[in-house]
Structure formats: structure tokens, C-alpha cells
């Protein structure tokens, strides 16, 4: 495997949280590599460290110990810590994020929500990407609706389109179907699978749903802050 195939490389990543006088080791030395174009699912009991790990992989949090490399570049590690400004650039240029709670702006239409990232940063062709994504995700007929006028499944499609509008290399999805019924959940899973297959988008997903996890090519089980390849 050539190094250039590896997009995310975690080495001995740990994260401790302080709660009063107690220290909680939420992540206990996780080492794993994710290749470009992989669809990786993380499962495991509540509190096993899934969100903590994907937040670190997505450069949303700093580890207490260990290293993280992104496309061969050290992001965190011995003597190395990107500035908040550098991290912001990495977050918006490399990653798209989706979460259980969609986080749509209630006063903006579907189209405006998808275009929100363009107000801060825009890759070439991003404007045309809004229309392409509305169509691809089957929500173009909802383009002028407000979030409160559409279903939960449609809301998550809007959030996916927004996450993709700047053509990220990696989509991070934390419980993307946690608020959806099983039919909508399967539909969103299939959308993610299709994005991974057709465009080679790398997907890193946390889920409690075994059916959804199966859609990814690779499963990792978290237990007590450690990762076990399934
Ligand atoms: N900000 C925080 N402060 C203190 N403890 C935290 C914090 N965030 C997470 N923890 C603790 O770290 C451990 C791992 O949490 P994490 O959210 O990563 O688990 P999870 O596997 O994603 O759980 P869930 O499936 O319930 O979302 C838990 O014991 C949790 O209580």
C-alpha cells in the first residue's frame, strides 16, 4: 500500500477528559489508517469513545497523546499542533460533516442552507454544485422550502448536500440516521453508499445501526476507548 493511499493515519491516539477531580480516558491509544475511498463504520456501546475518536479524526478536537496525520501531513503529534487558524483551513477544505441533529438554519430555505459554506469559502465551481447536489440527493423540488416544511430524511439530505458543496475529500458522519425511522435511515445509508461508490468519497461514520454499518466496506468496533477491527 503506497503512503499516498492513506488519508487518515492515527497513531496511539488518546483523549482524556477531566470531570471534577476525576480523569476519564475516553480514548486509549487508538492506531488505525484509513485509505482514500474507504467507507468505514464505527460501532460500539454508548460511551465507548466513538464520537471522541471521529472528532479527533475530523480535526474537531485535540488528542491528549498520540499522532494524527492527514494525507501524510502531521496535524497533531509530538511537538506538533496546528494553530486554530490552520485547523480551520483543514476543516473546511478537507472535511464535510454531518450529525444526528442536522443543524440546518431554520430561517433559510433548503437551497440557501446548502449554500451556507460558500459564504465562508468556495472551491471553483461550487455554485453549480448546489444545483447538482440538490438533484443528486432528490431534494430539488424542496429547494425553496424551509426546514420545518420538510421531513427528517429530507433534512439529512440537505445537510449532506451542504457538507459536500465544497467537494470535501472526507465525509464525517456521526450518527447520521439517529433521528430517522428505519426506512429513512436505510435511504440515507444508500445515499452515502452511492456517494462513496460513484465519487470515491471517503466516509467515516459512527452508527448504532448494524444494517447501516454493513453498507460500509470496513467495520471497527469500539470498546472502552479501544478500536477492534471487525
Ligand atoms: N466533554 C466531555 N467531558 C467529559 N467526559 C466526556 C466528554 N465527552 C465525552 N466524555 C466521556 O468520554 C467517554 C466516551 O464518550 P463518547 O461520546 O466518545 O462515546 P460514544 O461511544 O460516542 O457514546 P454514544 O454512543 O453514547 O454517543 C464517555 O465516558 C463520556 O462520558
TrEMBL record:
CDD domains: ABC_MJ0796_LolCDE_FtsE (cd03255). It holds the Pfam family ABC_tran. GO terms for molecular function: ATP binding; ATP hydrolysis activity; transmembrane transporter activity. Keywords: ATP-binding, Nucleotide-binding, Transport. Residues 8-230 form the ABC transporter domain. InterPro entries: AAA+_ATPase, ABC_transporter-like_ATP-bd, ABC_transporter-like_CS, ABC_transpr_LolD-like, MacB-like_ATP-bd, P-loop_NTPase. Gene3D superfamilies: P-loop containing nucleotide triphosphate hydrolases. GO terms for cellular component: membrane protein complex; plasma membrane. Belongs to the ABC transporter superfamily. Macrolide exporter (TC 3.A.1.122) family. This is ABC transporter ATP-binding protein. The lineage of its organism: Bacteria, Pseudomonadati, Thermodesulfobacteriota, Desulfuromonadia, Geobacterales.
Amino acid at each position: 500500500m503506497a503512503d499516498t493511499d492513506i488519508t487518515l493515519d492515527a497513531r496511539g491516539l488518546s483523549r482524556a477528559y477531566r470531570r471534577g477531580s476525576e480523569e476519564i480516558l475516553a480514548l486509549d491509544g487508538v492506531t488505525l489508517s484509513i485509505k482514500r475511498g474507504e467507507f468505514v463504520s464505527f460501532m460500539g456501546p454508548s460511551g465507548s469513545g466513538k464520537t471522541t475518536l471521529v472528532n479527533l479524526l475530523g480535526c474537531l478536537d485535540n488528542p491528549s497523546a498520540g499522532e494524527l496525520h492527514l494525507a501524510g501531513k502531521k496535524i497533531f503529534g509530538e511537538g506538533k499542533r496546528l494553530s486554530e487558524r490552520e485547523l480551520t483551513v483543514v476543516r473546511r477544505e478537507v472535511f464535510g460533516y454531518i450529525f444526528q441533529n442536522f443543524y440546518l438554519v431554520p430561517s433559510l430555505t433548503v437551497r440557501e442552507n446548502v449554500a451556507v459554506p460558500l459564504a465562508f469559502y468556495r472551491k471553483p465551481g461550487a455554485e453549480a454544485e448546489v444545483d447538482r447536489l440538490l438533484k443528486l440527493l432528490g431534494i430539488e423540488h424542496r429547494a425553496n422550502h424551509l426546514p420545518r416544511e420538510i421531513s427528517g430524511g429530507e433534512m439529512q439530505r440537505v445537510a449532506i448536500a451542504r457538507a459536500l458543496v465544497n467537494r470535501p475529500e472526507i465525509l464525517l458522519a456521526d450518527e447520521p440516521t439517529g433521528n430517522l425511522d428505519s426506512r429513512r435511515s436505510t435511504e440515507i445509508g444508500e445515499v452515502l453508499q452511492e456517494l462513496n461508490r460513484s465519487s470515491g468519497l471517503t466516509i467515516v461514520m459512527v452508527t448504532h445501526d448494524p444494517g447501516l454499518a454493513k453498507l460500509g466496506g470496513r467495520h471497527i468496533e469500539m470498546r472502552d476507548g479501544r478500536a477492534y477491527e471487525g
